[in-house]
Amino acid sequence: MPDALQQLLQWSTQQTAAAQSAASSTSTAVTVKPEASPETSASTSTAAAPAPQQKLDTAILDHIMGKSEAVMMRDKLAIMVDPEQDLNERIMAMDDFEMLIESIDNAADMQNMNMWPKVLGLLTDKQDPIIKLACWICGTAIQNNPKAQEAFHRHKPMAKLYSLISSIHPTISSTQISNSTRAKAVYCLSAALKHWPGAVADLTDDSNRGWSTLREGLSDPDPVIRRKIAFLINTLLIQSTDMPEDSTQSSTPAAVGQPNEMVEKMSETRVVDALLKSLTKPLPMGADGDISEPDWDLREKCTRALVSALERGGLDAEQRQSLASLWDSWKMDDEWENVGFTPSEAEQAKKLLRGDRAMSS
């Protein structure tokens, strides 16, 4: 029998015996005659007093009832941040922690339990797998969770993410950062910026470092990073303004919106230029650049981001002309289909560009 269950049985037996003894004493006390002397009454009263109960070890209760999620989070965090622990033990603890903070309430409680400083400290750990999982935990905690997202930003972690993502700064200290870790850092960056009111300010801090990270990410050596960055750019553009729901169904060229702060900064920091370059001068595919097939996934994401920028007045005359020349070269519907556009979406995009060009003339 397991030790915990053996202790529980022993405790239960002791409590049962004590209760029976107290009941027996009480029964004996009831039969005492009323004319008993004061000394006898005192003796009877003393005999009737129940024996003190032995407290149950909390470890046994934990074994029976299970620890609360808050306690489990603390226990896992203690293992995560301990460099003396075996790497596999730390990884397992981080996996468990990530599952716990998938709960919105648990993620929000990270601030109440003062966990953010320790978790964010893992972004500069000496072990690449730990950094990767730290990005994963942060991204999961703040994704679609405004309370946790706000707590995350209080600790000013964006510079760490930019350093992890940027191909110009591929290492932190002496740690070699893997491409898979950098991809997880983009995931975390995306969660940090989506629906965040201070997104433009955060990207602009430190001499536009965030915008530079986005621009450089579109020409990153790793195609996975390029795709994730292009998708994030489009998401930020879409969220920057609310476009009419039926704009893609209109039979006439859509009116061009006025640039907002997000769009203006993307133009100013040449992020839009980088999107165009990804289409007009695509980087080679394959480890040795020997794959001739275009990266259709990236081309779709960049095309959609450019359409989003176009809808919001984010392309200047030169950029519009460059995009028009590219689209004019897509003579066949197959080209649009390869970038994930339906015939109606392709026609609407071309009408939008013609309307934009007409307004600029």
Automatic annotation (TrEMBL):
Domain Nucleotide exchange factor Fes1: 5-110
A GO term for molecular function: adenyl-nucleotide exchange factor activity
Regions of compositional bias (Low complexity) in chain numbering: 20-52
Keywords: Repeat
Gene3D superfamilies: Leucine-rich Repeat Variant (1.25.10.10)
Family: Belongs to the FES1 family.
Name of this protein: Nucleotide exchange factor Fes1 domain-containing protein
